[in-house]
Amino acid sequence: MERSALAATASADRHERATRSSKAWIANEDDRDMATVHDAAQAGISQAEAMQVVKCTTRFATVMCVIIAIVKIGVYMYTKAEVVRTSALDSIGDLVANMISLYTGYRMANPDSRRYPAGQGKFQSIGCLVFSMLMFTLMFGNALGNVESLLESKDDIGMKSITRFFCQTEGLGGDFKDWHKDIDCKADEYEWKKSGDEIDNPLIPFFLQNGDDAEKEWAQDMDKDQEKITRKELAELISAYENKAESWQELKEQNTVLALCATYKFCLWLFCVLYAIPKSGSSVLVALATDKRNDFVCTTTVIIATFFAATATDFVENFMSEDKVDPFVSFCLSIFIMYSWAGLMIEHLTILSQETANTQYCEGIMTEIQNLLQGSPCSVDSKDVKIYQSGAGNTIEATLVVSSASTHFSEVAKVREMVEKKLARLEDVERVLVFTAMPTATLHG
Q1: How many Å apart are CA 9 and CA 42, to the nearest integer?
Q2: Given pLDDT bands bounded at 50, 70 and 90, which one contains residue 443?
Q3: Tally of CA atoms within 13 A in the half-sphere of 338 that contains its CB
Q4: 301-312: per-residue pLDDT in tens?
Q5: Strand ranges for 205-274 from DSSP E
Q6: Among 132, 176, 255, 442, which residue's CB has the most CB atoms within a 10 Å radius?
Q7: Are residues 269 and 413 in the same domain?
Q8: Percent of the chain beyond pLDDT 70?
Q9: Are 251 and 325 part of one and the same domain?
Q10: End-to-end Cα distance, the chain
Q11: pTM for the full predicted model
């Protein structure tokens, strides 16, 4: 079929939507195939080859969604890091969104004209809208949890428990007596004295002899000024004990997994940009490439930020405590993910609101209708043509005005049928409704 300016406009519009909403690659297979055929035709590419490239790429991306979601859940169960939880929620969202698209595709492939006389074109948009709103809300709740972690005070329950214990050892002899005298024990209040005798740090020989590899490394790296400490400092050290070596090992394992995920996304983005998109001209793959590029940038930023915070602790401490880095990075990631899902939400809100198609597309449709009506007993005015988004495509409503009251009905019916068939073949057209009307003068006469 000869490509027209209308086809070029429709293709450009699909590509623009794809760059605006990266999650738009998650669609049912029928809509994906239709868009692929039109994009390939517009780019002058073999439709069969384009279809093969798009199907293989999107199916691979869907399978990887499953694998990555499972891996991230496992990493979160191991590290309990907030940033990993946030990333895992996003991967689960992509997976469930694909499942919803499969279901809506199945429902739309089995039309029920009795229950849905206007068609089921909005079924996918409703499903995507509900889920994108759910994901946006979920990430908003996750962001609030991150803010709570940033604002909450440091847990001092351990310190209070140790202090209370030694307050209750007043009747015991030996070293308990020395510990007890360093504490002011009042009713319901237990406070360490501001000064106290220094003792040898018992944690160093204990961990060197009985600790695991990470604890031995931590004991060896302990500062020289910590070899002699007061009993209060020892209690604080024990209550806030966090094995730096073990934390560093967990961070390396966590970021190794995230780096593998980022590498996959970078490779898939490169594949789409350098091979798949030139071979298919597909707007679906443009959205997929945009999504993976954004994910790669975001995941890489998380890795760099967490490693920097762990290695440049003195610099980071000028802005926030070390334990606040994880919730802060997670909060930033939550905001970015909310933005991604908001794009999909806005896209389907636009479809459900039946917004007018873009101006160039409407002008192209109007030109097509006027060309079809040349030499016929009917005419049309621009105010009698409505073109609006109704699903994967657009709905066209046109009212043809019969030139003369003496025109035979069968002749008008042929014109209407011809217009319906011709318009239905145009790109991004989901439904065509053609009506006829007599001239206003004839009606009043």
Answers
A1: 10
A2: very low
A3: 15
A4: 888 888 888 888
A5: 228-230
A6: 132
A7: no
A8: 86
A9: yes
A10: 45
A11: 0.68
